[in-house]
Model the fold of this input.
Amino acid sequence: MEISAIVILSVTAASAVLAAVLLLDRLRRADRRSRHLSKAVNSLTDQLRQATAGLAAEKEKLNSLLSAISEGFLLVDKENKVVMFNKAVEHMFNLPPDDFIGLPLINLVRDHEIDSLVRQCLGTSHKQTATVEVDKVKHYNLTAVPLEEGAFVLVQNLSHIRHLEKVRQDFVANISHELRTPIASLKAIAETLQDGAVDNREVALDFLQRIQIEIDKLAQMVSELGELSLIESGDVPLNMKSADVAAVIERVVGRMAAQADRAGNRLEMGTPPDLPAVRIDEDRIEQVLVNLIHNAIKFTPPGGRINVSARAEKENVLVSVADTGAGIPPDDLPHIFERFYKVDKARSGGGTGLGLAIAKHIVRSHGGDVGAESEPGKGSTFTFSLPLAESRR
Ligand SMILES: Nc1ncnc2c1ncn2[C@@H]1O[C@H](COP(=O)(O)OP(=O)(O)O)[C@@H](O)[C@H]1O
Ligand SMILES: [Mg+2]
Done:
């Protein structure tokens, strides 16, 4: 081979090698850069992940806070479209499980008064407040506060408070009616006596008897009203002492005998001689017995029998008041211990509708319970339990 050819060949080989070396170096540097890059990307991803987790945790906290609030809370955007709302809003407006986010507010609240209140807030950028009645029974207090991007609406449910107000109004109206009836009877009796009946001894005695009956009713109502205000004022301390419940029953039966007699009913008691002592506030338990016996007399037509008995059972003494009266329909039985509940308002013979609610409250505060069994037309038996003064175990 010629020298020149050898030189050319070796120059070509050398430049090829050089090119390869350069390429390798470039590749190595590119690889180093890409490793740097991927490290940076990884750390960025980590940071992002942490930030998102933090945000999710914050959102979770906010959500649980909002769902725990009993007040309704919702956000709308500038177009009055729903951005978010809490659980209370769901309950208040009885929402189906639809997605309301992004929909006009009216779809959610279905009430033009509420919708226009929020519109007004958005339009004027001023806080708006109103009390709104929905479907006659729901009452809401609404406050719409303008925000930069829409409005925040606070919904307070007043339905429960309004319901209580109504119950109270009805109660006062009913009570004054119930009180007026015996007073009107007393007035009529007094007038009849004045008009001459007083001179006929037999008629006069009969009227006196009737006066007593009306006074029984009035006295019971006044005593129940007093008891109600005692209960409502809260902590009435019970004066608990070890007591002989048979003696308490005897006392009350003695006191109520004349009343039963006037109503033409026989009031009896039956207690075994060896009843264990109970721990009670005697005055309160007397009130329970009076309420139950008063009812038994009131709801038993003349000629009936009322029996008050007691027996020991496990850790309690059970006291029963049984009558042979009108009885209570099965549908009403679960409700008679509720305040103001009367089976037959027209036939109830006057009363506050509170006697049994009071009795239940007193018995429960002694750690006992009260229940009723009844067969309509045959009679009713009310039984309450009282814990023993000393455990028998
Ligand atoms: N011994 C009973 N026999 C029949 N019904 C009764 C008897 N006791 C209570 N009830 C029913 O339970 C209702 C509630 O009793 P209560 O709370 O004492 O109210 P009130 O006696 O003022 O009507 C009564 O109105 C009556 O309908
Ligand atoms: Mg009563």
Observations:
- The pocket of adenosine-5'-diphosphate (ligand 1) is lined by residues 291, 295-296, 299, 323, 325-328, 336, 341-343, 348, 351-357, 380 (CB under 6 Å).
- The radius of gyration is 41 Å.
- The CA atoms of residues 45 and 214 lie 87 Å apart.
